[in-house]
Amino acid sequence: xxxEPVDLDFSESEIRRYxxxxxxxxxxxxxxxxxxTARVLVIGAGGLGSPVALYLAAxxxxxxxxxxxxxVELSNLQRQIAHTTATxxxxxxxxxxxxxxxxxxxxxxxxxxxxxxxxxxxxxLAQYDLVCDGSDNFATRYLVADACVLLxxxxxxxxxxxxxxxxxxxxxxxxxxxxxCLFPQPPATESVPNCAxxxxxxxxxxxxxxxxxxxxxxEITGIGDSLAGRLLLWDALAMRFTTIRVAADPDxxxxxxxxxxxxxxxxxx
Length: 269
Known about the structure:
Elements: H1 12-17, H2 19-22, H3 28-37, E1 39-43, H4 49-59, E2 63-67, H5 92-103, E3 108-112, H6 121-125, E4 130-133, H7 138-151, E5 154-161, E6 164-170, H8 179-182, H9 195-198, H10 202-221, E7 230-235, E8 240-245
Parallel strand pairs: 1-2, 1-4, 2-3, 4-5
Antiparallel strand pairs: 5-6, 6-7, 7-8
Helix pairs in contact: 4-5, 4-10
């Protein structure tokens, strides 16, 4: 089957805007055209979601969705760079949308000012080709991870705490492990503090969010080596990156040979 043709009809403004991308032999006009037609959902418009959303907007991803039900608070501004003092009190998705369109008015930004739950997730995620999860709680992470497998969507998941971050790509529909192959069950709530309890260096969210956006661009355009099957860990204090190989679990409850999770009913409230 021949690949679907790519529309390379760029306006003069687009050529100027994306010229540094188009100059890259690995990306070029074809890659930029793929970005223009891509649909990416960003879960969370906070520390990770801010750099993801801003860089995907700048890169020319044609349609970006934002999911978050919080408003901008003063404590967010130390790391959540899509927001400013002037947007305090605004919905994060609205604040981030304004910042994204200020960078690139040629893209479409859809806002979903809600908390993602099992009832909303299937229809919402189905509208997008790829999901970047920057949520700050395990309930949402597992819901998103399960939904992505069931909907055959590629998931790029990142998390941060204190001076450390981790990043992985999951696409078991194309081979490789899912999130539950690596983390079969969520930890006890009290065993892992969140950023509000333990703190986080603001720049750590910037680094991990930028890496997350990079992997999204690679997955959309098909360039480079996918992070699928690997877990990237970063220790900012030691300035050390570590990569761990992750294999698919044949007994995985979600993507294994005899899956026990067939819908999102386990996430019902």
